[in-house]
Design goal:
Keywords: Nucleus
Family: Belongs to the ARS2 family.
Subcellular location: Nucleus
Strand order of the largest sheet: 3-4-2-7
Helix content: 40-55%
GO cellular component, one term: nuclear body
Structural class: alpha+beta
Protein name: Serrate RNA effector molecule homolog
Largest sheet: 4 strands, antiparallel
Strand content: 5-15%
Number of strands: 19
Radius of gyration: 32 Å
């Protein structure tokens, strides 16, 4: 029998009276239901119920319900446009006030902090340009081909060692050590397979030679420490709160030996602007012990989620081999030259003193007015040649299935590779991946990944001509060029600036008017000839004395008002600005009809389908490119619980029909 009636009934689960309600908590629930991973990284992992409600923009139908019935269609459309503009202006203002003091926001938009950051980035670009020029003078650039077959040469290039401040001995050691990379392993396996296919019988007669004796990479029985090209180890930080500064992370990491630097990616809007980080250490330290100790460190009540970051397994990655076709290579050369000229101008490289004057007076092509020696004498390679008359007479110039022989122009490819290498080393642009790595200099691998041309199309895809040359479909080539141009222009070339009217509509303020408003707000009339300055608490005879007092004694406050006004102006003027999440019903309907996506909007470019790294990083490609290894995989499904009633499968349900069943007749 139990110690008491309450304990007895709690254990037995039986009621003394029929139909009595059991008010005791359900004791059947197990502890593991509460000890789940959702509370491991507090305060990142929170349910959607704990979040602040997402602002909702009314649909046109709901907006009309708030208006008078006598409103005309034109008035309704005009008022709804004003409502949407006011809604966006308020959201931008609230987001600015919420994040203006955070370090990541100041580095992007504050006039002083962003200026210092741009100066550091330009210094890094000049250093990279010097390294590229040295390699170019040594002849290393001309020997390099951006093809997958040249993956070992691309990996062994000494850019990373020189960026890390290595010596000639370090470069010699790099070239002599064995390459441990999946891209090289693929090529080695391919060559071994060819050798085994051609000489299988002879090798069996000779007893079978080991194909790995020539230095190929294999899985050895002895576990060897994987060497990194830059001789460093690094720790990946999964959760860095937006209010944590770089200095605070450096202070926590400097306690450990071998610390080199900290790199932070751009905030992730889908995770409440939490960031990912990388801490780089020297190779000769015990990285596991440092990671263990770093996991016990909490900064501003935030668990950083430190894990040992794996090195990039495949540094050289291939794209479609159609990029080696002459017509595609001509288009790539045109786009690469334009990119080089744009980013040279952005970073102040190869710019003459009267460059801006010439540009204002003559609207010339950005490549034509560039002083970069790599962009000179490209006209001969960009002129397209075609047998238009012959094709017209034969009637083969049109048609969806028109095929042309695959052509590779080595001279054209050589000029293209030179510019692609320049973009990758100097400007951190992975051309064939149409992506930029803006924070590469603070990352563990300062030149970690590159996309190159893959193997040419095989003859089995489109066939061969009478001379045995591989054919390619002209429509496929045209579509490939159009798609590549669209992606490269959207990701790297689309720079739109708002006009004065648009900035005013988004809430831009005049600097001097804001200063006047600040002075007026600090002039409080208590009585006749008696005024109070709330900022200092002093009393004056008139507002003109308060103005003089603020100008002479509190000039730094007025400067702060000016800086904050410029701060917001820079934020509003950027096309890819970060904004808070809000529900846009029009966008929700379009995304729902498209079969995916949430109901959040993070930036104006994101709403138009543009997504970068943002760090994104971004973020997107940037995180995977530098050893993220999907530590943050799961995204919203792990860190944020769905606001719906459960997970929904986007696939269509499979339906079955009995073919032998008789037809229903109604």
């Amino acid at each position: 029998m139990g110690d008491s009636d309450d304990e007895y009934h709690r254990r037995g689960g039986r009621d003394k009276f029929a139909r009595e309600r059991n008010d005791y908590p359900d004791r059947i629930r197990r502890d593991y239901e509460y000890d789940s991973a959702s509370d491991t990284y507090d305060p990142v992992m929170k349910t959607s119920a704990d979040e602040e409600p997402v602002p909702v923009m009314m649909t046109f139908k709901k907006f009309l319900a708030t208006q008078d019935d006598s409103i005309t269609d034109e008035e309704a459309i005009a008022k709804y446009s004003e409502y949407k503009l006011e809604f966006k202006r308020q959201e931008l203002h609230k987001f600015f006030l919420a994040h203006k003091d955070e370090e990541w926001f100041r580095l992007k938009y504050h006039p002083e902090d962003s200026g210092r950051r741009k100066a550091e980035q330009k210094e890094n670009v000049l250093r990279r340009l010097e390294i590229f020029q040295n390699l170019y003078d040594e002849g290393c650039i001309d020997k390099l081909q951006i093809d997958y077959d040249y993956a070992p040469q691309i990996i062994l290039i000494s850019v990373v060692v020189k960026l890390e401040g290595g010596t000639e001995d370090d470069i010699a050691a790099l070239k002599s050590e064995k390459i441990d990379d999946e891209s090289v392993l693929d090529e080695t396996k391919k060559k071994i397979a060819e050798i085994n296919g051609e000489e299988n019988k002879s090798k069996q007669e000779k007893g079978g030679e080991n194909p790995n004796d020539d230095g190929a990479i294999t899985d050895s029985d002895d576990e060897k420490e994987k060497q990194c090209r830059n001789g460093t180890d690094f720790i990946f930080l999964r959760n860095v709160a937006p209010n944590i500064t770089m200095e605070e992370i450096e202070t926590a990491c400097k306690r450990f030996p071998g610390f080199l630097r900290v790199g932070l990616a751009d905030p992730v809007p889908d995770r409440k602007f939490y960031r990912r980080g990388w801490v780089t250490f020297r190779r000769d330290v015990n990285i596991k012990e440092i990671c263990w100790n770093l996991n016990s460190v909490r900064i501003k009540e935030c668990d950083l989620g430190a894990v040992i970051n794996r090195d990039i397994a495949r540094r050289v990655r291939s794209v479609n081999g159609i990029t080696g076709h002459k017509q595609v290579a001509q288009n790539d050369l045109r786009q690469a030259a334009k990119l080089a000229a744009i980013y040279d101008k952005k970073n102040g490289l190869y710019q003459s003193e009267n460059q801006e004057e010439r540009q204002s007076s003559f609207e010339l092509d950005v490549v034509a007015q560039s002083q970069n020696p790599l962009l000179k004498n490209l006209t001969d390679f960009l002129i397209e040649e075609a047998n238009a008359e012959e094709e017209e007479l034969l009637g083969i110039s049109s048609g969806e299935y028109f095929k042309v022989p695959f052509q590779r122009d080595d001279a054209l490819i050589a000029r293209l590779d030179r510019i692609i290498t320049y973009l990758r080393i100097v400007h951190s642009i992975d051309f064939y991946n149409h992506g930029e790595y803006p924070n590469e200099d603070v990352m563990p691998n300062r030149c970690g990944m590159m996309h190159v041309r893959g193997a040419p199309p095989s003859s089995s895809q489109w066939g061969t001509d009478d001379n045995g040359r591989t054919l390619v479909a002209q429509k496929f080539v045209t579509d490939f060029i159009a798609g590549f141009n669209n992606r490269i222009e959207t990701a790297l070339m689309s720079e739109t600036s708002l006009n004065e009217l648009e900035l005013d509509n988004l809430g831009r303020k005049d600097t001097e008017k804001e200063v006047e408003s600040f002075i007026t707000a600090n002039c409080v009339e208590l009585a006749k000839d008696k005024w109070l300055c709330p900022l200092s608490g002093k009393k004056f005879k008139g507002p003109e004395f308060i103005r003089k007092h603020l100008t002479t004694k509190h000039g730094e406050k007025l400067d702060q008002v000016r800086q904050e006004t410029v701060h917001k102006h820079i934020y509003l003027n950027e096309d890819s600005r970060c904004i808070s999440r809000f529900s846009d019903y029009d966008g929700d309907r379009s995304r729902a009809s498209g079969g995916g996506g949430g109901n959040s909007s993070y930036s104006d470019r994101d709403r138009r389908g543009y997504e970068r790294n943002i760090g994104g990083s971004s973020g997107g490609r940037y995180a995977s490119s530098y050893g993220g290894r999907n530590y943050d995989r799961g995204g919203t499904s792990r860190y944020w619980e769905s606001s719906g009633s459960g997970r929904r499968d986007p696939r269509e349900p499979v339906t079955y029909k009995d073919l032998d069943a008789p037809e229903d007749i109604f």
